[in-house]
Design brief:
Layout: E1 27-32, E2 37-43, E3 49-53, E4 60-64, E5 74-77
Parallel strand pairs: 1-5
Antiparallel strand pairs: 1-2, 2-3, 3-4
Length: 78
């Protein structure tokens, strides 16, 4: 029966056929210690890093993507 399955996974869904690729954006969670705020930062167009900034003070953050890196989805930036 439709509606009986609840999926609470944190992995982004793959684009559906006919859907737009822009709708699926990979991200990591960031706790900005500088302003005691949480935000998401998204993967850049080149797919080489997650980039963003603190929503409070604008401090930039960049997390490179490399072979052998981590599979962590949450980071703390001081």
């Amino acid at each position: 029966m439709k509606g009986e399955h609840l999926d609470l996974s944190s992995e982004p869904e793959l684009a559906q056929p006919g859907g737009r690729q822009e709708d699926v954006r990979r991200y990591v969670g960031i706790k900005f210690v500088c302003c005691d705020l949480y935000s998401r930062i998204y993967i850049n167009r080149a797919g080489s890093a997650y980039e963003g900034h603190c929503p409070g003070c604008g401090k930039p953050v960049r997390i490179r993507i490399a072979p052998g890196g981590t599979d962590a989805r949450f980071f703390i930036v001081s």
